[in-house]
Task: structure prediction
Amino acid sequence: MTRAGIVTLVGKPNAGKSTLLNRLIGQKLSIVSPKPQSTRDRVVGILTRDDVQMVLFDTPGLLDPHYDLQRAMRAVSRTAIDDADVILHLVDATEPSFESLVAAAGLPNQPRAPIITAFNKADRVSPANLNTLRNEQPGASFISAANGDGIVKLLARLTESLPESPFLYPEDDVSTQQVRYFAAELVRETALEQLDDEVPYSVAVEIEEFREDRTPVYIRAVVYVERESQKRIFIGSGGTKIRDIGRGARAKIEALIGSSIYLDLWVKVLPNWRKTPSALSRLGYHVPQDQRR
Ligand code: GDP
Ligand code: MG
Result:
């Protein structure tokens, strides 16, 4: 008897979502065989272990005002909540206050799926404070995505919430989507690290080509910004900025896929892409018809 289903991840920026994902599916990602695919998916990872398969969904922008690309991202995130078999709400245990998911995300009603709250970064909280938290939130899990504490128990809890079901994907399938998704996210993350305040919110990244049949692996990434002035900032004087961003992103992607890559990085202007349905859908953000303005 196997179990399988959708685990939807929700968490504020910096809660440790990426760290947790890497811990959960890291080894598998490195053996992925990327194939070209055009649109971004909500699936960010598939974890198959023994007789359980978890399909991990992301919720971009749900608790992150910076990346709230208005209706498109919210719609994707809401659907990921609606489709979930279990929702994993990751909370930074070092943060002073706790807000329920329904309140934090402004959900119209309590989701159908059970919500498991996991306090991450338990390694950074004193035993006394940890105890207080445990008393306040008796149903919560306490983990450290960084050192692995509590992960086995958390996986067991998630498993219990999944329905009995045949696997939804082949056992060793981790579709290429995730690698492209992560590659795009790593380019975006590096750009955000290295750019000043006003540009980042206008940055979107598209992986146009991902050729694993070449050595090094060839990746062409296009960074979209909304204005010419942002493009100039991105390139920097004499191209120094884009070179630095490219170098940083390359190192991260190499660490992720475990082989050397050639990152062909471009920057293009897509005017007002955040407000243009055709541009949004091209970048993989699907705006439901009935929510278009
Ligand atoms: P995300 O924005 O939710 O994806 O968060 P990240 O995974 O990028 O993590 C944000 C920061 O918290 C990074 O500096 C991580 O190294 C750190 N971090 C994540 N998980 C843990 C943890 O369990 N313990 C500690 N001490 N740091 C963590
Ligand atoms: Mg992250």
